[in-house]
Target: Fido domain-containing protein
Amino acid sequence: MFAPIYTITNKTLRNIGITDAAREVIDNAPLIPAWEAKFRKEAIERTVHHGTHIEGNKLSLEEAKDILEGGEVVARERDVQEVINLRNSLKFISQLASQELPGESSLITVETIFKLHKLTVDKILAEDSSGKFRIRQVVVKNAQTGQITYTPPPAAEVPYLMEDLINWINSAEGKEIHPIIKAGIVHYELARIHPFVDGNGRVARAVATLVMFLDGYDIRRFFSLEEYFDNDPMNYYLTLQSVSNQLVLDHHERDLTPWLDYFVEGVAIELNRIKEVVRRISFDTRVKDKLGEQLTLNERQMILMEFLHRHKNMQNKDFRKMFPDYSDDTVLRELRFLAKKGLIRKIGGTKKAQYILK
Model:
């Protein structure tokens, strides 16, 4: 039976506290539907971009956004397909966590992981390797030097190792562990087993996200751990390897503590960042009290309000930088709407006007 070895350090304990406090704020923030939709859309965009970029995808964040919105981008076909595939796997995770897929279990099964792999490598990997455990030995190499940095377990062991892991995820012991710790363990173990010919990193991160969602830790689906990993990919891979390359007689003796310290810190950083943004723009309760109704803002109005919450005031030169593709009249019309609704106030004349929160 799979039994991970790790220690809850003071660092991890502190970051769990930060995460739980941030989760409380985010889950209970009175956000208008338009803001909630905006945050979820941005989380998907960041996850898709950074989740593929860390694996060598050359597309920029803006190019990834264009693809997600159905636009055409001149790029390597594989790069475009990876973005589409990761978007589809995220949709599957959300549907599974929301129980929107008839006949699907709320437990993580080998079929769930096969499905995620199929979605991840669609039109990239040969059909006979898609959604199937590898049947040959693979190695992990340094992309620049070609040096072998990690040798996963033999292919013959993969089905048994995966069965052990899945049983542990769904066991009473697994359900008692904090969702973030559990997600970190699952991420590491999938990366260590390397069950597929290709797509292992993306599947490991996807299953870790699913673990958090199924254990009630979806945080309104506003977060993206992939951005944290991609900000320093060398540290991400070296931390994984530092555990995998421990000199122990049996893989069950590996100490996951360094990886969990790193993983939990990433969750804390990401959720704390989101908490601060949510706090700045959770103004709709005050608006509802004032107007007697909930106010729905359009995209430009939301951007203007977020800027004012962050910078306290705004001048004409600011919104020209924010909206280079729109005329001054268009932006001024949005500002007049916000002023009419009692959200902002104009100070000074037209040319030297400043706008502040009311």
About this structure: The beta strands are 140-141, 148-150, 313-315, 344-347, 354-357. DSSP finds 16 helices and five strands in the chain. The radius of gyration is 23 Å. The mean pLDDT is 89.
